User: Fold this.
Amino acid sequence: MNITKATAADINDIAHIHVDGWRSSYGGIIDQDYIDSKTIEDRIALWTDIFEKDETTTLLARDENGTAAGFVSFGKIRTAPPGMSPIRPLYTAEIYAIYILEDYWRKGLGKQLMKAASDALKGDKHQSVCLWVLEKNKNANAFYKAIGGERCGKIDVEFGPTKAREVCYGWRKLKTIDEA
Assistant:
């Protein structure tokens, strides 16, 4: 896989992966009508706004044929685990989104994207990172545990009519991801 920093020219590919990721990851967890309401056009608008604000780094993975296969988006922490001290935070960075097309699942791409994000965060002087994931997304939870994530918080959220729980995984040292 070739993983590079995404640009505005990659928005259509990112939007496609984002919508596909919702559909393949959240079926049976979130209300299907809510999932189906997420369109590529909506995601293009969202990602256009994200790129215009320039507060987020997004890395895009392409296979040997140049086909976009997955992405990871990250930056400064936005949603800290409950109880985390703002004075001496355990985590300074956050993975905002990571999605991979289902055809590329269980082929090591998730680990490659997490390591690439870890490297970029270290380059920005971060030493720790966390992310939020739906508690019922068993595959994602198992993956984050397998690469050294420690469960460190939970919050209740709503996705349309669905009430769900998100759990936070944290890596106090980015090198933990690199060693997984």
